[in-house]
Amino acid sequence: MNMRKWNWMLVALIMGACDGEDSADVEADSAANIENTQEEITDLRVPIPDPDPKFVDLIRPERIIKPGEDAMYCTHLTNDAGDLAVHYLDVMQGKFGHHVVLLATTDPKEHGTTEDCSNDAYMENVSADVLSGTELPDGYAVNIPAGTKYILQSHYVNASLKSIRVRDIARMETLKPEEIKGWAATMTTNIRNFEVPADGKEYELTFDCIADQDMTLHLAGPHMHEWGTRFEFLAGPDTDNLSSIVYVDPWKPEYRDLPPISLFQSNPMIIPKGSILRTTCIYANTTGKTLDFPAEMCSTFGYILETKQRFMCDTVK
Q1: Of 155, 194, 253, 296, whose CA is between 20 and 30 Å from 99?
Q2: 26 domain residue, yes or no
Q3: Is 94 left (phi over 0), alpha (psi -120 to 50) or beta?
């Protein structure tokens, strides 16, 4: 399989589509964020690609991010491009960007609504549906029905001394009906409402999920931020019989955006319904202050095959 550059999400990932007309509407709705000011602004907008019938492009509203600002914001959109079979998701973001993800939502709002989504409560209503930056096996795709309501989320940490003007793009490569050989869906485990003490000592965070369906695991990967030191994802029939699936030691800060991926393409891993899925994250917080979600995260993400039903386990500690 031809693997392209991974650009995470998380955990995560993800759902949706809109045509060019919808994109223009969203940009118009965000005009209030583009302030009239004499201050010098660095232009970090991603160029809009030429239209291509094989792709559906989602174009974020433009936004000004102030110096030192940590901004996570979400735009509600509707899939008006018809039923889609998404084989690959490419995301394009300017400097100081942390992620762009597409999220399914159980709390849809009017098309074009843009809002702050940095708080923990917001994450209760979203889940991932397409993973960015990695291809499925030939002929496999994620099903996105017409009329789907979804969220395009962007996260920036402007570490510069000037305001920046940004515009992100998510580009979905689609398959024609006659090209489809099978379906895929995301698998995500996530925990919120945790705190990592500011004592610099090793701190372990572990949580369990239960598989609600038989899963054929195609790939799996970890998600933590800069203060992670080790990561492990395990599965088994019970807590006394768990086998390691993903193990990363040591964790490196660059894995936040480019995590190591474990592929099971030639020998997909079967996880029966009812299995225990355990995620363990180890941290060493040297910031001098307590870290909580979303400053730090602990998630496992993956693709499962031969199903349209995604698996999402969102845990509150």
Answers
A1: 194
A2: yes
A3: beta
Torsion-angle region of 113 (φ positive above 0: left; ψ -120 to 50: alpha; else: beta): beta
Residue 174 in tokens: 């689609």
- Spatial contact of 11 and 129, defined as CB atoms under 8 Å apart: no
The residues, any chain, with a CB within 8 Å of residue 126's CB and separated by 6 or more, are 103, 104, 105, 106, 151, 153
Cβ-Cβ contacts under 8 Å for 220 (sequence gap 6 or more): 187, 233, 245, 246, 261, 262, 264, 300, 301, 302
Let me know if residue 13 belongs to a domain. no
Main-chain dihedrals φ then ψ at residue 120, nearest 5 degrees: -60, -40
Q: What residues form DSSP beta bridges with 169?
A: 59, 92
pLDDT number for residue 281: 98
218 located within any domain: yes
- pLDDT recorded at residue 264: 93
Question: For residue range 115-137, what is the model confidence (pLDDT) as tens digits?
Answer: 998 877 777 788 877 888 888 99
In whole angstroms, what is the distance from residue 271 CA to residue 300 CA? Answer: 15
Q: Of all helices (H) and strands (E), which one includes residue 281?
A: strand 276-284
Instruction: Give how many domains the chain has, as a whole number.
Output: 2
